[in-house]
Design a protein that fits this description.
Blueprint (H helix, E strand, L loop, with lengths): L3 H10 L4 H9 L7 H16 L3 H14 L3 H18 L3 H7 L1
Helix pairs in contact: 1-2, 1-3, 3-4, 4-5, 5-6
Length: about 100
């Protein structure tokens, strides 16, 4: 359905855009280049700040898979655990990330 940048822009403009989210989730995480990964981070944070927490959580899962640095991945896992527990009230889901 398009490249990562186009899909992220669509999702940033409309967090309820299920086609854009599905398109992103269908992409191979290893296909994200540095620019796409930066845009993924910016979009995820923007959506989180705007209250689209479920979508932000899905993008964070994608980011966790796309990152190759183990330390960065560990930080993202902790962030996802906190998002699940603190913002979404999903304590059971949070345990899987901690």
């Amino acid at each position: 359905m398009g490249n990562a940048a186009e899909l992220l822009k669509s999702l940033r403009d409309d967090p309820a855009d299920e086609r854009a989210l599905a398109g992103l989730l269908d992409l191979e995480p290893s296909s994200f280049e540095e620019d796409s990964t930066r845009l993924l981070v910016k979009t995820r944070r923007s959506l989180r700040d705007r209250g689209a927490l479920e979508v932000a959580s899905k993008l964070l899962d994608l980011e966790i898979q796309a990152v190759s640095d183990p330390d960065a991945q560990a930080q993202l896992l902790v962030e996802q655990g906190a998002l699940q527990s603190d913002s979404l009230g999903a304590d059971d889901a949070a345990e899987a990330y901690y």
